[in-house]
Every structure is written in structure tokens, then in C-alpha cells.
Amino acid sequence: MDLFVENLTVTRGGLPVLEGLEFTLRPGGILILRGPNGSGKTTLLRTLAGLQPPLEGSISLEPEAIAYGAHADGLKATLSVEENLHFWASVYGTHDIAPAVEAFNLKGLLNRASQNLSAGQKRRLGLARLLVTGRPIWLLDEPTVSLDVASVALFADAVRAHVAGGGSALIATHIDMGLEAGIFDVSPFRADPNGAPKVATAFDTDFEGAFE
Amino acid sequence: MDLFVENLTVTRGGLPVLEGLEFTLRPGGILILRGPNGSGKTTLLRTLAGLQPPLEGSISLEPEAIAYGAHADGLKATLSVEENLHFWASVYGTHDIAPAVEAFNLKGLLNRASQNLSAGQKRRLGLARLLVTGRPIWLLDEPTVSLDVASVALFADAVRAHVAGGGSALIATHIDMGLEAGIFDVSPFRADPNGAPKVATAFDTDFEGAFE
Amino acid sequence: MLDLGKYAGAVMSSWGVTILLLVLLGVITWRQSVNARARLKAAEDRRKARNG
Amino acid sequence: MIALLIRDLRLAMRAGGGFGLGLAFFLIVTVLVPFGVGPESATLARIAPGILWVGALLACLLSLDRIFQLDYEDGTLDLLATAPLPMEGAVAVKALAHWLVTGLPLTLSAPVFATLLNLPGTGHIWVFVTLLIGTPALSMIGAFGAALTVGLKRGGLLMSLLVLPLYIPTLIFGAEAATRGTEGMANATPLALMAGITAGSIALLPFAAAAAIRVNLR
Amino acid sequence: MIALLIRDLRLAMRAGGGFGLGLAFFLIVTVLVPFGVGPESATLARIAPGILWVGALLACLLSLDRIFQLDYEDGTLDLLATAPLPMEGAVAVKALAHWLVTGLPLTLSAPVFATLLNLPGTGHIWVFVTLLIGTPALSMIGAFGAALTVGLKRGGLLMSLLVLPLYIPTLIFGAEAATRGTEGMANATPLALMAGITAGSIALLPFAAAAAIRVNLR
Amino acid sequence: MTNAQRTKQADDRWNWLWEWANPVKFMALSGKVLPFAAAIAALTLVPGVIWGFFFTPEADKFGSSVKIIYVHVPTAMMAINIWVMMLVASLIWIVRRHQVSALAAKAAALIGMVMTLAALFTGAIWGEPMWGTYWAWDPRLTSFLILFLFYLGYMALWGAIENPDTAADLTAVLCIVGSVFALLSRYAVNFWNQGLHQGASLSLDKQENVSDVYWFPLVLTLVGFVALFVLLLLIRTRTEVRLRRLHALETRERMIDA
Ligand code: HEM
Ligand SMILES: Nc1ncnc2c1ncn2[C@@H]1O[C@H](COP(=O)(O)OP(=O)(O)OP(=O)(O)O)[C@@H](O)[C@H]1O
Ligand SMILES: Nc1ncnc2c1ncn2[C@@H]1O[C@H](COP(=O)(O)OP(=O)(O)OP(=O)(O)O)[C@@H](O)[C@H]1O
Ligand SMILES: [Mg+2]
Ligand SMILES: [Mg+2]
Questions:
Q1: Phi then psi dihedrals of residue B110, to 5 deg
Q2: Which of B10, B11, B12, B39 to mutate to test the pocket of ligand 3 (most atoms within 8 A of CB)?
Q3: Of F23, F245, F252, the CB nearest to B15
Q4: Are C50 and B194 inside 8 Å of each other by CB?
Q5: Domain ranges (residues) in chain D
Q6: Coil, strand, or helix at residue A53?
Q7: How many beta-carbon contacts under 8 Å exist across A and B?
Q8: A135 phi and psi, to 5 degrees?
Q9: Tens of pLDDT along E6-54?
Q10: What's the confidence (pLDDT) of residue B204?
Q11: Number of folded domains in chain A?
Q12: In terms of residue numbers, what domain contains A35?
């Protein structure tokens, strides 16, 4: 499944953050999203995942093809690793958690309550969730935060296996994970807060003179 | 005022994190605290600030000489910058906020509610609080998080002025701020979770045979 | 068997409730004890295994 | 859906999950009222159905912020919104879980607490029946209120204010049916009306609540 | 100290600060009870002082988690603990602020709500007087409960469970004094006892609450 | 003698006692005491209960319902005394920081709550034939209900806090403050309503010689309940010590894995 993004404008708090975005992500492809803090990467990913509507432009896919990995992992502190994974597996109708456990080396932790995991272990569990979704397109927001070097390698392997199987991934990150991937820098698309907006919101158009 | 730390053991969740710490901080001195994530820097600073008791060892100073700057800034979202600063000034019995406003370039923001500040501006306000405490020893936990280059320079200037006036500072940070400072790496003092603890807590001693 | 007259219901049910509660308490205490022993043993074994 | 239900119930049972706290609160309100109004059993018996209803309602109310707030804070709600589960279904299931954890225990224990308020025997039955029919509406309406305030910090009191007016019809019919039943009068009309409210809430409010959550996630 | 008081009051007045929400809750409880209990004015008048007291108590209770929780979450409490302000003083001041924002408005408005419950004229005065003497104890005891649970996520319901039993003596003496006063009987004893509880709470509980906060910050 | 010496000597005099508060020593000693406690409990409780149930006559006013006294009074007394024990243990924890003391208070709470519940239920069941109602807002009954609430809150607070030392401190403070308010409630409730319940003056032992017939088995069951409490308390405290050790080990494991 191809992901085509055309002339997309995303907003935060009612104001455009990124304007006129264009890119394509094909099966087997990896795209790394770059940009300084506050440039709008999270906003873009949330828009693609269908959590917020775009102001303008088109996204070729329904959110049904997408697995979204956010800053927060959505783990329940009092449930065990196994229970957490099983829950997401049944939500997505998959049910087999073994490959995910394998890929992120969670075997020894299966019965540990997730509140007793270290930050890195929690993150690994959060990423294992992606594998049980069974969805082709991964949208990941800084997936390697608080992972050590060995775990980053595990994650890179998982991404490689995923795209080798015909999936694709769009990853916002500040570090280099050693993946062969295209790079998409959002900085050129930043909306200029001083200039005239390319896309006008209702209270942003010609109010010039209206409030004299 | 000298800060002598001798044979200090600090704990987190009931277990020793750093053991046998020794260092001295004299007036006019700056000490940079280094160590990887989770090594116990925050724990050490909180112990020195008197927020938690040490398991063993001595700290030469009463907490009354110390100004503590934590991860969180303690700002009230609905109060303006000026109100926030004034509050802390009256708590510490100083009352003159002008130098702090000056040092961190907050003049133009005085009437802005702190919820409408950007992350970096918030941080500057949090650091300005240190100046209104009037206390000689600063304990700072990653003070430069989310500051841009210009603001880091402002902060470094403030620290230099503080120590030039006979104060001192202990700063946990991962970046280089260009200060002339001693470096204290906590890594060698990490408690070995596998080995026998140097200082035993009640449930941590040798229980061999107790639970047959 | 003992004839308790018109108070039979009251006597039997209050004794019954008390005994039931105490038995429950005993069972809970016992189960918690067994559980704690097992979990602690597992943890101590893990520790010994680590320390060689 | 079943997975979500099981998860919510499991979470409630685990330490700190809040199972039983609603019940404890109900008990305490029931105990407080006699301290306030005095111990005469005739007075207490008269106001007992009303007090039990108000107590059950408040206990429900105070546990509402657990429905979505924790899931919002730890990011689960974001992930659920992108999962192949209609948000309407998720809301309905979560309201059901809330009812099973709060409303049902309240209903089951109400006859015991009714004893504390010296309610006569027939009253026990009617309090039980009316609560059984009415508490699902309380959970569903509450879930709607919780959905409206899910993005707010410490939104609890505000949510109470939003939800309480919505609870009033259920309360009126429920307490009326219970009081009339206790006094041996006909109470089919208020019962039917309350059942109608419950059915209507369950049929329609999940859509409103799901819409509110989607807006709050944006 | 004064600075802390002014800050807390100012925060309460700002948008989202919660001033008035306690009052609104009080109003709603007072309105709900007639719906639950039925509208006969004789019954209502009898139970009015008790209901007003229970309502005031619940309104107090629901606003308690604002006393320390927000300061804990944004790090202010850490900084206050290292500031040259004894924690005991800070606790007392915050309890005072809570009373000014919640207890005092409740007291002032109670006579108005008493009218809704058909309480006769003398009753208005006694409800007012007893609430005036009693609500400071509610705020102080509540601050203690809030201090115990300040480290917990969503600890509100647990806090209610801890605080409500501690409220019982105040409630009994307060409601008793109000009822007796309304009926024209002597009520000096319960009034004196309630005043004693208020004085004792204010004198001693700040120490316990400060100790609890220090433990929670550890 | 200087003050320091005096404290030192006092310390020495009581050291033998405080040493048992060390978890390892406690486990060793309690392990040995356990069988004896079990034996004493069995030897007093079983005869006492059988005597009370089968071999006591009917009383004038009470009829055969007097037999309820053998479950009602012991549970009621234990309910109060266990709270007092928890208060003492909490004070010891706050003053001397002996871990076992805090854990013993935690272990006792569930027993106390069950005793309170049993006293409430048996009393209510007895009330129906005697006073014609299961429940009246009698001061003694009411203060028991309040005691139940205190147990509930105390246990809920233990359950809600993760760090065991924090939990021990906070529950101890709650127990101490709660005791004061429980006492206040007792007076408040007395003031608020006059009761139906038997006063201690009516206690059966003070009446003529018949009362001995009830009194001896009652004393035996009372002793039996105390022994049962000690037994359960030892088992539960041992469990809590184990769980506390387990917590320490698991925290350590987490530090290793991190
Ligand atoms: C839920 C209801 C009841 C509760 C909570 C309750 C509670 C208590 C308590 C706390 C004691 C004191 C134990 C002590 O410290 O010596 C006690 C003793 C006693 N109760 Fe009850 N009671 C209840 C109902 C009844 C009823 C209905 C009767 C019978 C009419 C009754 C008869 C007695 C007797 C004979 C004693 C022993 C008095 C003495 O020797 O001091 N109780 N009860
Ligand atoms: N709740 C909010 N309301 C209004 N504006 C917001 C809100 N959250 C973020 N913003 C603003 O929206 C812009 C884009 O934020 P976004 O989180 O998308 O950035 P990002 O590229 O993901 O940054 P980072 O690398 O720090 O994660 C920022 O300028 C930020 O200040
Ligand atoms: N609430 C807690 N309970 C138990 N252990 C904790 C808790 N918080 C942190 N820890 C553990 O204590 C250790 C020290 O943490 P600390 O926050 O002092 O590290 P740090 O050096 O400040 O790290 P960072 O650079 O990430 O701020 C870590 O191993 C951490 O896992
Ligand atoms: Mg981001
Ligand atoms: Mg840190």
C-alpha cells in the first residue's frame, strides 16, 4: 500500500504548523522524519494517524492501514507484560504474541508488572505492540527514546524485517539508527507565523480593518 | 560556606544508589555532576537539599543555605511571570526581583501568564527564581534542558556572577556550558546491585537461612 | 442434638457467620503465606544464580 | 471489545484499581446521614430510599474520572483511537465495565445499607430493583461527562457539575419508584420512565461520548 | 506565609481555579435531596440542618485534592519544602486558603439554601453559626487527608475514604447543635465541643500533615 | 550520671527486646513459637467453644440466644484490642523505626477488620430477637461501625502506596491521628443518642451464681480468641516480612536490568 501525501497542511492549537507537505512512502520503504524541536513532527504523525483532521491537502490512505507509535506507550502499570501484549493483540484480532516477544527479547519479563520495568524495558514493550497490530504502515514518534545501543539494534532489525515483508515505516527521530532510508526534513515546510498564511483559517483571513 | 560531603550513601526506593560519596564545594567553586541516565544524580541533589535523608554519611551544611532547582520548575500556569517571581521573592524574604528579571531577559514577558510561555521561556523563569532566593549554594538538576544557545549563555553568566560574589554551585548536566568548573563523576560510586552492599538496610542484609 | 427453641435461627446463623469469617481469614492467611514463600524462594534462587 | 472489558475489570481488581472504593464511599455516606439528621428510626426509614439513591449517585460520580482519564494520561486512548475498534463501542464497553465495578456492587449491597437506615423489608426489594434498572444510566451518562472533560487537569469537580444535572431525571424517577414501592403504592410509571432513560442513554450517548473523545484527542 | 496565602487565593480566583465549584456542588446536593426524599415541607424542615451539614461536608471533601496535588505535580511542593518556610506553617496557610475559598462561601450561602429546604428562620442562624465554627475543622482535617494521599495518582476516592471517618465528630456536634438550636433547645454543649475539635485540629494537625508531606516527598 | 549514660543504660536494659525486631531474628524466633501458639489456641478455643455451645443453660431474659455471647463478646473485644495493638506498633515504628513493628501492624489490620465484621453481624443477628430490629443507632453499635470504617481506610492506604517505607510511615500517622478521632467519635456518638445495648454493669459475671455457668466458658473462649489472634498475627507478620524482603530483592533486580 502506497502512502501519498499531497499539499498537506497540519495545525496545532488552530494555527498551521507545517504547510504544503508532499511525499510518498511505498511498500518496502523507510522514511526518516527530521526537524528541530517544536517543528511539527508529532503533529504531522498524529494527522496521518487520523487523530486530527488536516487543514488542507490529501492523504491517500485510510487510518485502517496504520499502526501509530506515540511518545507515550499506553502501558497499564498493574498489568504484566504478557497481559499488556495480549490485550493489544486481541484488539487487533491477531492473538499470537510470540514473534513480538521474540523480536524485542521480552521472554524473561513476561510475568513482570509493567510498572516494575525500567524505562528502556517499557519502551521495548511499547514497540513490541507494533508487531502484534499486523498493520502494514508504521508511524513512529521518536521510538528510540531511552533505549540503549543493543535495544536500538533490535528495533532496527524489527523495522528491516517489517519492510522486507512488504511493510513500510515513517519514523520521526533525532538519532541515526543505521537504517537504509530516505530522509524527509520538515523544516522547509514550516508555516511562517509572521508572514501571510498560505492556507487561511477562519479567523486568519482578511480581518484587516475589521477591528478599528 | 563550605559544603563537605563525607562517606555519603543515598537511597532510592529503599536501596542504595550511590555509596561512599566524598567531595567538597568551596565558596567561589563550581562542580559539574556527571553520570549516565539513572545513575543517581537527581537522588544525590535531593538528599543534599534535605528532601530525603541519607542512609549514611554526613553533609556539613544545613539545608538552609541551599537553593534547589529541580527538573520541574514549580511555576503556576495562571500566574504571570511577575507574580510567580514575586511569590518566591517574598517566600525567601528578598523582594527585589529586578536583578533576576535583568539577568534572564524576562523584561518583555513580565505580564504574560506563564502558561503562555514557550518551554525555553518557562525554564528561564525557573532559573530566575534562583536569583531571588539569595542563597549561597545552588544545587541545579539539568538546568539547561530546553534552553537555546543564547539562553544557555545567559545562564552561564548568571552562574559566573553568583560564584564571583562568593556563592557556589553544584550542577548536574549532560552538556558543556563553558564554565570553569571541577567535574565530579558519580559513576565510580554506583552501588553494585549484585555485590554485597557497603551499607545494609534492614531487609538487605544477609538473609541466608532466615527464610527456610 | 441440642434444642435451641425459638432462637435456633439466630444462634446458628451468628455462629455460622463467625465461623465462616474466621475460616475465610484462615484460608486467606494461609494462601498469602504459601504465595509469599514461593515468590520469595524464586527471587532468592534468581539472586543466587546471578551471584554464581 | 471483550478484551477491553476484561482488561478494564482486571485493572479495577488490581491494587490501586479502585474496586471497592465506590462501595466504601456509599457506606460512608449512608452512615453520615443519620449523624446529620439524627437517629430516630421513623425519620430515617422515610428518607431512606432517597438517601440511598443520592448516595449511590455520588459514589458513581466520584469514580467517573477513572473511566477515561488514566487511559488518556498514559496514551492508551490515542492508541485505541487508531485501533480497529469503533470508539463508540469502546465507550460503551468502558461504561459497562464501570457499571460492573461500581453500579452493580452498589445495587447488590444497597439492601444491607438499607438495614442501617431502618428501611422496612419491602423497601429493600424496591431499592434494589430501582438501582438495578437505574445505575446503568448513571454509568453511561457519567461516561459521557467524563468524555467531555477528559483533557482537563483536575477536571473532577467540573465534571461533577456537568454530570449532576444530567442525573436528575434518573434520580427523580428512581427515588420516586423506590419510595412508592416501599409504601405499597403503584410505581409502574416512574419505573417505566426510568427504564426508558436507561435504554435511551445506552442507545444514544455512546455516540456523543465518542465524538467528545475524538475532539479531546485532537 | 502571607505571600503563600495571597498566591493560593489568587490561583483560586483565576480561570479553572475552582472558586465557586464547591458552592455549586453544595447547591446541587441541596437540590438533589428534595428530589430524592420527596417534597413534603415538614420532613424537609426536619432533616434540613443535617442535610445542609452533610452537603457542606461533601462539598469540602470534593475540593480537597486541590490543596496539595497541583503543587505536588508541578514541583512547587519540593521547592516549598526547601524554602525558609516551615512546612507546618505552609500546611496551615493552605488549609486557611481552602477555608476562605470553600468553607466560608458555603457558610455564607447556607442560609439561602436553607430556604430551599423550608427551614424556619431561627434555623438559618444556627446553621450559619455552626458551619462558621465547624468548617475550619473540616478544612484542616481535609488538609491532613490530602497530605496523606498527595503522592498517589487519582487518590481522590481513597482520600474521601480516609477523611470521612475523621469528619464524624465534627458532623455530629455541628448538626446536633444546629438541630437543637432550630428547635429552641439548649445547644451550648455541642457547640463548645465542636469548637474544641476545631481548635484542637488547628493546633495539632498541621504537624501531622507536614510530617506526611515530608514522607511523601522523600 | 549524665543524660547520655542514662539513655545508654536504658538502651542496654531493653536491648534484648529490641533485638527481636531484627527481621532475621524475628523469623527465627517466630518460627519456633508458632507451634506453641497453635497448640494453645487449639487447647483453649475448642473446649471453650464446645462448652459454650453445648453445655450452657438457657438464660431468663435471653433464652438460648445467650449462646451468641460466645461469638459476640470475644470478637467485639478483639476488634477493639487489635486496634490498640496496631496503635502501639505504629508508635514503636515511628519512634524506634523497627521494621517488624510496622509490618505487624499491617498484618493485624485484616484480623481486626474480620473481628469487627463478626461482632457487627453477630450483634445485628442478636438484636433482631432482643430489640426487634437488626440495626439501631445505638452508641456502641455506631462506634463499631466507625471502627470498621477506620480499619477500611487504614488497609486501603497500605494497599495504595507502592514504597513500603512510605506506606509504613503514612499508615502509622493515620493510625495515631485516627485513634484520637475514633475516641472523639465514641464520645460524640454517646452524646448524640442513648442506647439499647447492654452496659458493662449488666455483664453476666456480676450476677448471682448462675452467671458462673456462662462466665467460665466465656473466659476460656476469650483466651482462645487471643491465642488465635497471636497465631494468625505471627503467620501474617512472617508473610509480610517475606514480602518486604521480596520487594527489596525485586527492586535490586530492576536496578540490574535497567
Ligand atoms: C451490631 C450490633 C452490636 C454490636 C456492634 C455490639 C458490640 C458490642 C461490644 C463492643 C461489646 C463490648 C465488648 C467488651 O468490650 O466487653 C459488646 C458486649 C456485649 N454485647 Fe453487644 N453489640 C451488638 C449487639 C448486641 C445485642 C443485640 C445484644 C443482646 C441483646 C448484645 C449483647 C452483648 C452483651 C451481653 C455483651 C457483654 C457485655 C459485657 O459483659 O460487657 N450485643 N457488644
Ligand atoms: N497543546 C498545544 N497547544 C498549542 N500549541 C502547541 C501545543 N502543543 C504543541 N504546540 C506547538 O505546536 C508546534 C509543533 O509541536 P510538535 O509537538 O508537533 O513538534 P515536534 O516536531 O514533535 O517537536 P519535538 O521534536 O519536541 O517532539 C510547537 O511550536 C509547539 O509549541
Ligand atoms: N520512584 C522510584 N522508585 C524506585 N526507584 C527509582 C524511582 N525513580 C528512580 N528510580 C531509580 O533510581 C535510580 C537513580 O535515579 P535518578 O533519578 O537519581 O537518576 P539520574 O542520575 O538523575 O538520571 P537522569 O540523568 O535520567 O536524570 C535509577 O536507577 C532509577 O531507576
Ligand atoms: Mg514530538
Ligand atoms: Mg535526574
A1: -50, -35
A2: B12
A3: F252
A4: yes
A5: 2-217
A6: coil
A7: 7
A8: -95, 150
A9: 888 888 777 666 677 788 888 888 887 887 777 777 778 888 888 889 8
A10: 66
A11: 1
A12: 3-211
